[in-house]
Amino acid sequence: MRRSGKFLVHLLSQSRSRSVCALLVLFLVCHTAPLSAQSVKSYLPVLGGTDADLGLAFVNPTLVDGAVTFTLHGYDGSLLQGADIVNPASLPLPASRQKALMAAEIFGQGISGKRGWIELTLSAPTIRGFFLLFDSQLNFVDGTDLIFNTARQLFFPNVSPSTILSFVHTGIGELSVSVALYANDGHLVRRQDLNMAPLSGFSGSLDALIPGIAGFEGYVVVDSNTPFLSSLAGIESFRSKSDIAVVKAQQRSDQLRIGYIAHLATQGQYTSTLTLVNPDPLPQKVLITAADLQVGGQPRMPWSQTIERVIPPYGRLAESVDTLFAFTTQPLMTGYLHYEVSTDTEGLLGSLAYGTIDGTALAAVPAQGNGYSDLFFAHVAQGLDFYTGLAMLNPNTDPVVVGFSTFDRDGKKTGAKLFTLNAGERRARVFSELLDNFAQVGGYVRLSSTRPIFTYELFGSQSSQRFLANVPAQGVSLKQQYSGAVVTAAGGAQVLSSDGMTSLVVPPGALPADAVVEVATLSTENLPEIPAGQFLTANDLTQAGLNQVPIGNVQLKPIGTQLQAPPFVMFPIRVQLKPGAQIPVFTYNTSTQQYARTDLFAYADESGRTVSAEIREFGTYVVGLPRDQIQSTIALNPKSGVTGTIVSLSGDGFSANPTEDLVTFAGSTSPSVAAKIIAASPTLTGTVMVRTETQAWFGAPFTIETNPPPPSGPTFYVSPTGNDANAGILASPWKTIQKAADTMNAGSTVIVQAGTYDERINVTRSGSSSNLIVFQAQGTVKTQGFNIHADYVKVDGFDIVSTGADPNDRSHGSGIYLSGGNNQISNNYIHNTSAAGIFFMSTVSNTTVSGNRVAYAVECGIFIDGTNNLVVSNDVSHSVDVAASDADGIRFFGSGNTVRQNHIHDLMVSDSPGQEPHIDAFQTWGPATNYIFERNWIDKSADGHHQGWTIESIPSGSPVDNIIIRNNVVITRGTGYQPAVNIASDNASGIVSNIYILNNTITALDPSVGFAIWLLKNTRNAVIKNNIIDGHGNAGEPYLKVQAGAIYQIAKNAVSSPGLGGLLIGDIPWPSAGQFVDWNSLDFHLLANATLKGAGEALALAINDFDGKPRNSPPSIGAYE
Q1: Where in the chain is the domain with CATH 2.60.220.30?
Q2: Going by fewer Cβ within 10 Å, which terminus of the chain is more open, N or C?
Q3: Three-class SS of residue 9?
Q4: E strand or H helix that includes residue 12
Q5: CATH fold group of domain 747-1086
């Protein structure tokens, strides 16, 4: 046995050695299902090699025993036999245990140097596996999960002549396969036929299989050419200097129209390459987004970038992320990738390879299309010079609560944490950051989430960058249903209480049989105290000799059901605990009112208002605190008030040290915020909570008077499989969204389940100020749009593509068509519409449009009209010109509207072939009055996007007055004519007056750019102060172009290149020293020692900066304070 194998055995069995191979193992997760006589096959296409060891480990996190049987095959189809070889071999998997072995420890020392593959017979249909290949010095390490689904076609996405392909024919008959090589442009480079005997295979470099292919870069398809025979399984490995990356051969079922890669690392010492393969005979247009971007651990602006590519038939995109998004040299950048196919095609095969620039570390991860809500990672290696990292992404439009638990090799829980991922949030941490002072080599991890998430695990060395190894998640996406419905034993489910506050995750196989599962809570305040002396252990929240006061409970029926795998339950409590606090769990007999102790513990989430625990049978569970840890009554004065109200708390138990006292305001769904309430929000009506260093309080009610309560009416459901004759409830949903729109009254909510709805919804029924009508998408819900001729309506989370034919027919062509007031349009993806993405009639008022992504809309992304509306945090790109409609970001009309924190980018002439759009980020010709544009990020494409704001009054007399443009960032990527702001015109247009351009950062990336601001003759009182004007102005054009007749004021603008005519009086020259944190990465925050800090003029109209932070006195110049 090799030295690495010996170390592996010693470390995982007895922990006696500081083995450098602590994590180099193959993992099998017995992912709970009842053991049965029915077995299932899995395949590992490689046994190892002359320069590689194969590590295997197995973990069974269920409550029943399991087993795996192994059969070794040579690549010629024969059984591998010989001295000191055990074949077949069997390994028992005791309940809740992990076993780790080298391949030679399973099959015997005689397999050393043998080549072949492994067929696994699994005693339960849901056993999962993972393997790693590595050398004795750990110069290369990587692996992937076992293969359960064989296919008739295999796609190897990242291939060059030296790539190692391993594929096997698992069938019992002869098979003739073709091996086809495709270049990136889609043309067939070479095709070769190969005859395969039963149970045979191939493992070797591509040029050994097909000689004479020097210089080839592309992908390979192995095809059985038999439509009804799926018997192929394979992996590929490729190398970058020393380390390797291993990925499974992809199959047709891996094609994704929408794909996610949960973590991205590039720049600094790292590089990432995205590969997308189009296996179909049609071109596929794809939008690729890098999101949640952070540089050096700090948010990057813009936080996301989207580009478009067209992949030709049978083509491949293989491009570094830096090149795709034009990232420039800077510190380490992290984020995640998301791609979406916009053509009506089957989708792409996606993967990401990432590692160090010098090639010493490399790994690869496939794109994910479906997340998991209950999942396992089968190994932990934190310590002994190793780290384990975890990347998690919540793709949902709502927050999710994630339970994270670690176990040792014997199944004993070693740590737990409960945390919340907000909508769209990515979190990447090493285990020692997730759990304080965590150190453990061996064992496994379980994650349970209230909605499916994307995640993967990563191993590496703490002291060097010798290797990276990626571990795919292995789990299930559970059906979400409410209490009282049947849960199948085979499928499991996530069961919610009727109020949605309590969640039970039932894995597949946990139930001994199908059952109606009920989840509820009793009235905690009416439960008896828990008698002293029932505690198994003592910690900071359990003291022997004291009765405990119940603080939370959950009741799970059928009571007494014995489970074969531990479900995961989350429920609210009525005090505020410290995040991560551990409290004992008791069972409660409702008939006798008696408690019994357990060896279970519940753990508090980050809010301190929810706890989680794993259980082994259904019953009533209660958690409590010792009586002396419950505070006496605290008085609240006043008991209601508007936002900003100061509330006095008086009572006993407060510490003299304010840091030991925590006062929070807990909303109706239990999240908590700091007691300094600075803004009204529908989620913040509830209870003032208090926690001191040693005590917690049950809280007192408090009402924010200006904040309407959430909808209080019924909740309806729509499903593609429903029927409009149904009752519209979860168990009997409607089929059309229009049925819901025609039925709902004020306070009603409709949950629209994932699917495609070929309808445009006409909304005519209104809610009220205290009871909205809510249309809520659950998952990906595709519709043709909404016409909202009503008030107090909310539309959230839909995927909208309109089907109109005329760009002027907005009522059929816009994704959202608004004519009512007090509406909320949020978190929708609106794209490929035949008119403006979101269109406001002039009758619209007090409406909020937030968090939407609008792409490929005709005319403009958002067309604003009406009064007192808020357009905030939207992403607008790729507008399209049809029949001279133009292709703007946002068009604005009306009065009193605010446009804040929007991202306008990638508006390009090439999106409108045959047209000549006049592209503006923002455009009006009036009427438009009393507007505020603030904290927007405008990134003008070099492909024909010339104007930032174009502000005109056409025809003469159309009022355009009092427009504030402050704290925005405008980036120009093109050359020549590139104004950030154009005001008025030189023809017969009307007057444009009182335009305030204050504290913006206006920068051009090319030094040949002309003026930044153009004031034409009909401009009256344009005030231009405290702006950074960087890179605008050249020998032929000034930085500020003024036509005779324009009236304006300027002061304290910092100008880097004044151009023709020089610097105007009142402005200041650009300082010689650097001012920005990182101009190359578009980080325009000012350096701590920047001379532009405090160099501006105090302005009453610009009191905050781009980040929303208060301005100093005197303020800094530019968008950032």
Answers
A1: 480-629
A2: N
A3: helix
A4: helix 3-14
A5: Pectate Lyase C-like (2.160.20)
Q: Does pTM top 0.70 for this prediction?
A: no
The kind and range of the H/E element at 5 are helix 3-14
Consecutive H or E run containing 524? none
Residue whose pair of structure tokens reads 């030094």 in the numeric block: 1007
CATH topology of domain 373-410+417-474: Hypothetical Protein Tm1070; Chain: A (2.60.290)
Tracing tokens 């005590």 back to the chain, one arrives at 695
Domain with CATH 2.60.40 in the chain: 636-704
CA distance 567 to 197: 45
Tell me whether residue 768 is exposed, middle or buried, using C-beta atoms within 10 angstroms of its C-beta: 0 to 12, 13 to 18, 19 or more: middle
Residue that wins the pLDDT comparison between 56 and 67: 67
575: nearest Cα among 521, 525, 614, 643: 525
Output Rg (C-alpha) for the chain, integer angstroms: 32
Residues forming CATH 2.60.120 domain(s) in the chain: 3-145
Q: Which of 162-166, 659-663, 1071-1075 has the lowest mean pLDDT?
A: 659-663
Q: Is the distance from CB of 403 to CB of 449 less than 8 angstroms?
A: yes
Q: Are 231 and 119 in contact (CB under 8 A)?
A: no
Write down the pLDDT at residue 282: 95
Three-class secondary structure assignment of 485-497: EEECCCCCEEEEC
The architecture in CATH of the region 3-145 reads Sandwich (2.60)
Topology of domain 480-629 in CATH is Chondroitinase Ac; Chain A, domain 3 (2.60.220)
Instruction: Count, in order, helices (H) and strands (E) of the chain.
Output: 7, 92
Helix (H, G, I), strand (E, B) or coil at 858: strand
Residues 326-357 have pLDDT tens digits of 888 678 899 999 999 988 889 999 999 999 98
What CATH fold (topology level) applies to the domain 636-704?
Answer: Immunoglobulin-like (2.60.40)
CA 800 and chain centroid, separation: 20
DSSP helix/strand/coil, 249: coil
Where, residue-wise, is CATH 2.160.20.10 in the chain? 747-1086
Say how far apart CA 950 and CA 336 lie, in whole Å: 34
Q: Which of 550, 562, 569, 434 is nearest to 493 (CA)?
A: 569
Q: For residue range 374-423, what is the model confidence (pLDDT) as tens digits? A: 988 888 888 888 889 999 999 887 788 899 999 999 989 998 888 888 88
Alpha-carbon torsion (202, 204, 206, 210), positive or negative: negative
How many residues are listed for the chain in this entry?
1121
Question: In the sheet that 816-818 helps form, which strands lie side by side, from edge to edge?
Answer: 761-763, 786-788, 816-818, 838-840, 859-864, 887-892, 919-924, 945-951, 981-983, 1013-1015, 1040-1042
Strand partners, 246: 237
846: left (phi over 0), alpha (psi -120 to 50) or beta: left
